[in-house]
Amino acid sequence: MSISVNDVEHVAKLARLELSEPEKRQFTEQLNKILNFMEKLNELDTDNVKPTSHVLQLSDVMREDEVRPSWPIDKVMRNAPDEEDGQFRVPAILD
Amino acid sequence: MIKEEGIVSLFRLSIKEIHNRLIRKELSVRDLVDESFNRIGAVDSQVKAFLTLNEEQARTAAGQLDEQLDSGVRERGLLFGLPVGIKDNIVTEDLVTTCASKFLSNYRPIYNASVVQKLKQAQTVTIGKLNMDEFAMGGSNENSAFYPTRNPWNTEHVPGGSSGGSAVAVAAEEVYFALGSDTGGSIRQPAAYCGVVGLKPTYGLISRFGLVAFASSLDQIGPITKNVEDSAYLLQAIAGHDSLDSTSANVEIPDYIGALTGDVKGLRIAVPKEYIGEGVAPGVRDKVLAALRVFEQMGAVWEEVSLPHTEYAVAAYYILASSEASSNLARYDGVRYGVRAKNANDLADVYYKSRSEGFGTEVKRRIMLGTYALSSGYYDAYYLKAQKVRTLIKQDFDEVFEKFDVIIGPTVPTPAFRIGEQVDDPLTMYLNDILTIPVSLAGVPAISVPCGLADGLPVGLQIIGKSFDESIVLRAAHAFEQQTEHHKLRPRL
């Protein structure tokens, strides 16, 4: 399986990344090489193998649904690039 | 104090020796903190281990701890007053935590990671934040957005990654010990390259709350120290269940210090043929075989075994880790924290421009790889396949541990390579992790301890154990240390 510059542009859009033309060319070449290496996994028959998504045998981890204090707004907003009246400020979404 | 080449290093003393001197008031916490900053002043320009120094707060904390000692209270934990360094992907309240990324260059967390909180309770002193590969993605420390860290044994060589700053700070005696994080080998590999001890605990043993997420099913925090005993002390202080981390294991924590008996008589050691075969540098193989002879002399027995799926681990790992990374790094949108790109016209533009300007090349490459692997039509071919291969790798380990107590091999196939040597070839760089990645996929614990030098650079011996059997890993590593002097070697800076 090989991927094209168009595929790289599509994936970059999904990942919300803006790539320069040299980056697109570089990633196409490198990702092809890496994905080609990944093909090695197809040497293995895994039809009857269960996937491991997690090494620990965890079932649903639940806690009591109780009201607890949250961080104060001023602390939460401390790292915001732009804020106003305790809210995150972003460019207009609608015209 | 031990004097060598004009440098007086309190950090050559054991934890117990320092502790006794503090209690007897032959030494103050201020002395220890001064030692740390003096050493940083003398050598850090050569190795660049630190990203942020916490000098004012550290000196204030040292003063407060000394006052406690002066007040006559004698009951202090053994870690009391010790200067520590923290990898910069572990959040520290009010202390900049950048993950070595431009994206978080101004990020001041509003809380402490659970491990940092535990170290605070143990009354250690945080000296600063340590350099790393951006978002812990890399095996050389060249992917830091700020500057590469250099190997103190030869500054033309890499220190390894991604916890390179942590390993260097300990090797260069800038701090007493450090915290790192390991996803595919990021504690063990730099520990091996820098001649210090690095422990990746069982997945779930140490809380990940406050560790900036890279690949959540693999990430683990662990200690980087100058010897195994220190590693056991640090692990004892930071292991344990944490309700703030839903993947934290609720298991009883054994006495790790008590496990250091020095006795490995009858220990059953498995040596995978894949770990000492093709691709392993002769100098590294020789040191590992010499280490096995030391174990034999101590009464342990070893046998060659096979971990047949080792050759598939790197491919499976990079699919899984990159997929999880692409998902975890979706949170960096330039809205709530981190750097926002200027001149964005609309909200979508904020996302695109902030992420494109904020992330470095390796991070983008992994986000691209992970997004591709998870995208429609490719999930089964890549992600699901890799999860199934992960099962086979885990089964390899389970089978060996039915008959053996530990698995031993090299930590890394070669000593540290030169800076810039592999930077344009990501696949070659990824293959450096071939001996650490299987352990990460299986979630089992492993330690890297120094076992000699090859070409003037340190070689690491990797000792792997069953899940939650850190005690036997530490016992074997400590017994080896007691019979050898490798861990006492320090680079000349």
TrEMBL record, chain A:
Keyword Protein biosynthesis part of the UniProt annotation: yes
Catalytic activity: L-aspartyl-tRNA(Asn) + L-glutamine + ATP + H2O = L-asparaginyl-tRNA(Asn) + L-glutamate + ADP + phosphate + 2 H(+); L-glutamyl-tRNA(Gln) + L-glutamine + ATP + H2O = L-glutaminyl-tRNA(Gln) + L-glutamate + ADP + phosphate + H(+)
Cited PANTHER family: GLUTAMYL-TRNA(GLN) AMIDOTRANSFERASE SUBUNIT C, MITOCHONDRIAL
Assembly mode: Heterotrimer of A, B and C subunits.
NCBIfam families attached to this UniProt entry: gatC
Role according to the record: Allows the formation of correctly charged Asn-tRNA(Asn) or Gln-tRNA(Gln) through the transamidation of misacylated Asp-tRNA(Asn) or Glu-tRNA(Gln) in organisms which lack either or both of asparaginyl-tRNA or glutaminyl-tRNA synthetases. The reaction takes place in the presence of glutamine and ATP through an activated phospho-Asp-tRNA(Asn) or phospho-Glu-tRNA(Gln).
Family note: Belongs to the GatC family.
Protein name: Aspartyl/glutamyl-tRNA(Asn/Gln) amidotransferase subunit C
The organism of origin for this protein: Ferviditalea candida
High-level lineage: Bacteria, Bacillati, Bacillota, Bacilli, Bacillales
